């Protein structure tokens, strides 16, 4: 008699198989769509990166704010196919409309700007969207909409609408002046490299506390409104600390000579190592079950941070010194550094989310849920936790 063994995989095996699938799909997609040497499309780095950022924004809105409303009822693998197609269509259409539609009226957005900067101007909105919309899910857990008895898709629609104003305000005040063709006496609030490095560090803080640390320490604030306020202020403070810390790490890794050659561009590099960290926190939380979960709260959280940051540091070094030049065929930055991690590592994060969230890791069977960590056992029951299986990128 034959037995059909449908037992779930071990957590580590599930994670490694997911990693193999994501890397294979990511590399094949890169060679076809973006690679400067092999792709027939000639879209590297822009408008490819612009479309990539908008694809991630679509995943945040539909996958996390809306929790796959409209897609969740479809069986796999049709759900994954439909979700991937919708993501790609949205990203391409928005990128084209901004560069060729709005760009024909507002020169800052024009696709004709040298180096594709017009595409980048439009896509810079996504940087601010990563903070507001991701925080609403992983730190606020859809507060205040679920408290008012709303259900999906109304929770997500209200969330997207309510946060659109603050996101646009951040974009107009901080983003557009940093990339605008128009020169003003006062100049931008933050120079572009510093803006990217600092603001992305805030995104790192949001993902670190919301996913990796299950909303610690903000959840200790008490009620849901207080938790939301604590996370808003705390993530800005923590992100600022991370900006200086990560810049120091990068300077140590690349050395003083390369740091001097980079000049003010070194201020952008907290985002370059940061995107490696965010990509691994997303992957670790979704594919490896956010292990460890069986120790004390402090041990669990510290181990997750160390594991994901260790993977990020190794990825940063491997990417800039080996992979970007020899595997991905990206041009040099300075010295031995090649590429732009905000391109390929965001691509890795997007493929991760499309496969693990969109396709549900089809046809793999997820391992049994890990025992609830001590942090959940001691938490205020009035402060629901974000689900690690639906955590967005940045």
From TrEMBL:
The chain crosses the membrane at residues 12-34, 46-68, 80-99, 119-142, 154-176, 196-213, 225-249, 269-289, 301-322, 342-362. It comes from the Bacteria. Keywords: Membrane, Transmembrane, Transmembrane helix. Residues 368-394 are annotated as: Disordered. Residues 383-394 have a biased composition (Pro residues). The keyword Transmembrane helix applies. This is AAT family amino acid transporter. The lineage of its organism: Bacteria, Bacillati, Actinomycetota, Actinomycetes, Propionibacteriales.
